[in-house]
Amino acid sequence: MIEPAKTPYHHGDLPTALLFSARSMLEQDGVAALKLRAITRHAGVSATAAAPHFGNLTGLLSALAAIGFTELAEVMAPEHAVQPRDVALAYVRFAIANPGLFTLMFRSDAIDRQDPGLRAASGRAFACLAGLAQATPGADRAAMMVGLWGKVHGVATLAIDGMLSGLIPADSPQTIDAFLEQVFR
Amino acid sequence: MIEPAKTPYHHGDLPTALLFSARSMLEQDGVAALKLRAITRHAGVSATAAAPHFGNLTGLLSALAAIGFTELAEVMAPEHAVQPRDVALAYVRFAIANPGLFTLMFRSDAIDRQDPGLRAASGRAFACLAGLAQATPGADRAAMMVGLWGKVHGVATLAIDGMLSGLIPADSPQTIDAFLEQVFR
DNA sequence: CGCCTTATCTTTACGATGTAAAATTTCTCT
DNA sequence: AGAGAAATTTTACATCGTAAAGATAAGGCG
């Protein structure tokens, strides 16, 4: 989780404060709420205060997406997810727990996929999935990997977009988890 | 495919012309290019000419998304896709052939999912997938359906976003098709 | 045929957005 | 202390979506 640090510098740790504001607004009101002026307003600074740190809005959102990929890699790491099914469940659970952030991470017109920090973070997350496909024996590893990642990513995306209402139990996290375990049996 | 009709009315069949402009701009420059002023400019009318027909930008884009779902339902229809694998391949092929349109169809902040025309069209498309899960015998039909749709949707989404470069052969449509058949073996 | 209602389209106007440029403030370092 | 660099604000501009009001042309009806 992000937290605004003390005030070691000029006006505080503005980069972290901006990311913190952006994330809270993101989870509250969705990706549509991620306007530069709204974020800076929420952080209590002027509209152009983010430029020296992130360049432009895309840079700021790319940094936020990188945080998302770092956290996703964390919950999929081998120490937390031992079995293949654990990795799949961690992926979907992360998406359901952080719908706005997950949406941002895969929205290519709001972020810059070439951003070095973003590339590094997303690479770390995808390595967990790649290792998973490597572990399972099969004919074509690439096809296996695409199928596995596709299933995980598709279920996560559809769940976030509310496409599975009626198909997925909406009761409690426990029943959702039980249902997901059946999907990824 | 959309095509601007003759000029039976005032200035022509503007609704169709606007949808035609929007679609060509969409496939040319992506979802980010779908600005109301740009679309109307492309169609040669004033910026507010779309309002009487579509209300606002969301209405126009929802109508375009509805066209997308109609075409998706078409390629997944039983007369074109007999085996379950055919339905899956049609879904992914449609996404790869119409990346911008497919992205729009699932971008919830640009369209209105409650739009009646959109609901009808998307319902028709999803019915093809539901019937597919109904055909296959299995323990929990809902879990089967979610897993199947998720895999199909995830592979399509990841392919569109360029996430599968390196995993998927980029040579020719034939090799891509062969690869996909292996994914959905 | 002539008028009148209605739908279609344009003009105008307003608030909001992203960001470039210049000015201002604040920190760091010698 | 004073210079230089970094951070932040002020100002300005092009663009966006759309509401309101005016202009234009079509169809219905006498």
From TrEMBL, chains A, B:
Residues 86-181 form the HTH-type transcriptional regulator MT1864/Rv1816-like C-terminal domain. Keywords: Transcription, Transcription regulation. The keyword Nucleus does not apply. InterPro entries: Homeodomain-like_sf, MT1864/Rv1816-like_C, Tet_transcr_reg_TetR-rel_C_sf. It comes from Acidomonas methanolica NBRC 104435. This is Transcriptional regulator TetR. Pfam families: TetR_C_33.
